[in-house]
Each structure stands twice: as structure tokens, then as C-alpha cells.
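Entry for the shared binder. Reason: the reviewer on the internal report wants the predicted structure included alongside the sequence.
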Amino acid sequence: MVTYIRICTYSLIIRFQKQTMQDLIKALKALFDGTRIRILKILLEKGCCVCEVMQALDISQSRASHNLRILQDGGFVKSRRDGAWIVYSVD
């Protein structure tokens, strides 16, 4: 877990060198939640939809969507449409 956090921190520094401090704060806030860290771990293995995140973490659809949106706004997750589904993956 410590190694993962160090890699994420280094990635943030590189990614946000040219960004504003506000963008960096938004990204760091996205990581300071256990559920979002667990979602990132799932998405590192493979891209998946909200329903798969719900099942893997045993959380509601609204909570999964909310956390995915925060990760997306923080620049960690991207989404793509696949028919009727939206598939999320690590950016």
C-alpha cells in the first residue's frame, strides 16, 4: 500500500507540474478516501462499469457513481461509452 501511494504521489507531481495548485488539491482530495483507493485498485486490473464496482465493493450505485466522478474529476479515471454501458479505467 505504501508503494502504491508513493507511485501515485510521484505521478501527481509529474502530472500537475504545469497545473494550478487548485487542480493539485482537487486531485489529492480524490485520493483521500478508502473507497476511492479500492476503486482505483479494481480499475488497475481492468476497466469496468459502475455495476461491477458496486458488486466488488458491495456499495450502492449512487456511491459508486459519486466516487467514480470524483476520481474522474481528479484526473485518475477516464470513461468511454460501450453501447449502453459506460466503462471506467485508470487514466
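Summary line for the report: The mean pLDDT is 84.
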